[in-house]
Amino acid sequence: MQIAEMNFLVAEDDDFQRRWLAIMLANLGIKNIVEVADGIEALKTLQDPSTSIDISVIDLNMPGMDGIELIRHIAKDNHPGSIILISALDRSLLFSVETMSKAYGVDVLGAIEKPATPEGLLALVDLYRSRIASQEVPSTLPGLTFDDLRRALRNREFEPFFQPKVELATGQVKGAEAFARWLFPQRGVVAPLEFLPLLEEMGEMEAFTWIVIEKSIAACRQWHQKGHPVSVSVNFAPSCLARPQFAEKLIDYAAAQQFDPHYLIVEVTESAAVANAPHFLESLARLRMKGFGVSVDDYGTGNSNLQQLLHIPFSELKIDRSFVAGAASNHALELVLSASLDVCRKLDKHSVAVGVETQQDWDFLLKLGCTYAQGYYIAKPMDGAALPLWMEEWAQFF
């Protein structure tokens, strides 16, 4: 999406602050800006069917309907746009409202303390555009069907793309995470959000996961042959690991391929990791015992506590992007991020910061002692064949 095509709403009661926000947005190249002085007018604009708002910049402390109440109405109406929070209030309060908004299901790009700056606004606008770009999928065909997916499984049309994981202290590439994409012959690249729910409904997650495992291991072996001994991380559905024979099948497959299990990291989400299903825990324990890595993804977004996590034989924690992006300038986020890294250090586990978007994020994580970084600042997911060349180019900077 071009920046000039985007539609903005600025909800700010102070005339000077509102005009200054509008001027900064206009200087970024944004042409369509609606200005309102309170939450009531903002809600009317958002509810107007003739008006389409991509991003709402919302001041929290407004008379009448304040920003907090406005966000509740946005959630109730399921408004599809994103929001940027802005306030002169205490950082901890701003962080609490950001957390509340996400809990409501509202897409929060970030929170900015007053006075806002063009650089801060641009970073959040670019974040929105990158999200939209990653979600854009050609829609030349009607909705996907079970027959489409059965054919895709039969023809192995699912391909892993790989995003590098870099050691902050040295700058060395240590691994890559596999992100599955469906290369639909007539439709092009289909994102996981479109097909994973259907695969779950069909009961075909294990068949899909095996395609990704086999192709990821094959790619990793090629990297090793080219002189890059890095690991590969694959996301595993809980339904797969809950099957008693799954772990044994993976162990046997790695042995048959003469693939060192230390180079395969099994990723599970935090919510799945603390479910404590016996077969699930048995699978993880057996895989760790045989040398596979176990990574807890999305750390910080679930309802787990440290005691629950200690039941899981994990080797690394992946800290969710919501606690990484902008932590350098947000004290509340810094506290959460520092606490997460401290947990890893005390348990002698690796830490992986996900969603590293800027040089500032990188420098801050290095200062805090994070082990690994992953995100668009380093590289976007790429084809497995392209990764060795990228690693050689990246090595020139270190």
- Main sheet summary: 8 strands, mixed, barrel
Based on the structure given, which CATH architecture of the largest domain is correct? Alpha-Beta Barrel
Q: Averaged pLDDT, please?
A: 89
Helicity range:
40-55%
CATH superfamily of the largest domain: EAL domain
* Strands in their spatial order, largest beta sheet: 6-7-9-10-11-12-13-14
N-C termini distance: 34 Å
Evaluate the radius of gyration.
Answer: 23 Å
- Give the percentage of residues in beta strands: 15-25%
Number of domains: 2
How many beta strands in the DSSP annotation?
15
From the spread of the alpha carbons, the general shape counts as globular
Q: What ranges have pLDDT less than 50 throughout 5 or more consecutive residues?
A: 137-141
List the total number of helices: 16
CATH class of the largest domain: Alpha Beta
CATH names the topology of the largest domain as TIM Barrel
- Structural class call reads alpha/beta
Question: What does this molecule look like?
Answer:
- Helices cover 44% and strands 21% of the residues.
- It is α/β, with parallel strands linked by helices and 398 residues long.
- It folds into two domains: 3-135, Rossmann fold, CATH 3.40.50; 146-395, TIM Barrel (Alpha-Beta Barrel), CATH 3.20.20.450.
- An eight-stranded mixed β-barrel has the order 6-7-9-10-11-12-13-14, surrounded by four helices.
- A hairpin with a 5-residue loop joins strand 6 and strand 7.
- Helix 2 runs parallel beside helix 3 (67-76) and helix 10 packs parallel to helix 12.
- The longest helix has 21 residues, at 205-225.
- The radius of gyration is 23 Å and the shape is globular.
- The two termini are 34 Å apart.
- Mean pLDDT is 89; it is low at 137-141.
